[in-house]
Amino acid sequence: MSDTFENVTIIKKANVYFGGQVTSRTVQFADGAKKTLGFMQAGNYEFGTEAPERMEILGGAMNVKLANSDEWNTYVEGQAFEVEGNSKFSLKVPEGGADYCCTYMP
């Protein structure tokens, strides 16, 4: 995981979900790639995807249940997980919240 991005455009307006419990900013790259950098407050969430995604945990932790699975897995700072396109996944974020980077894969 890189700690910095270079030659990017950042969309200033926040993406706000779940009444402000989850927020992110969009980072666009010259090659058309897109990522979001965000923070999730403690809570339980369900997200839907269109494109496949890779979630990197930058701080804190997330308990994750991917589509078509009954199993919860815990991911902590420095770890990542991938989500299939056109699916849903559930998250349980413990106290202290979670800082993350989401990469939208082609």
List the helices and strands and how they pair.
Blueprint: E1 8-10, E2 15-17, E3 22-29, E4 34-40, E5 43-48, E6 53-66, E7 73-76, E8 80-83, E9 88-93, E10 98-104
Antiparallel strand pairs: 1-3, 2-3, 3-4, 4-10, 5-9, 6-7, 6-8, 6-9, 6-10
Could you characterize what this model shows?
By secondary structure, the protein is an all-beta fold. The protein has a single domain (8-104), classed as Jelly Rolls (Sandwich), CATH 2.60.120.10. Helix content is 0%, strand content 58%. It has no helices and ten strands. It has strands spanning 8-10, 15-17, 22-29, 34-40, 43-48, 53-66, 73-76, 80-83, 88-93, 98-104. Strands 1, 2, 3, 4, 5, 6, 7, 8, 9 and 10 form a ten-stranded antiparallel beta sheet that branches. Strand 6 and strand 7 (73-76) form a beta hairpin. The two termini are 19 Å apart.
Strand content: over 45%
Largest sheet: 10 strands, antiparallel
Q: Give the topology string: H per helix, E per strand.
A: EEEEEEEEEE
- For the terminal residues, how far apart are their CA atoms? 19 Å
| Helicity level | under 10%
- Using only C-alpha atoms, the radius of gyration works out to 13 Å
Number of domains: 1
Low-confidence stretches: none
Number-wise, the strands total 10
CATH class: Mainly Beta
Supply the CATH superfamily name: Jelly Rolls
Q: Note the overall shape.
A: globular
What does this entry show, briefly?
With 106 residues, this protein is mostly beta strands. The protein is 0% helix and 58% strand.
Main features:
mainly beta, 58% strand, ten-stranded antiparallel beta sheet, 106 residues
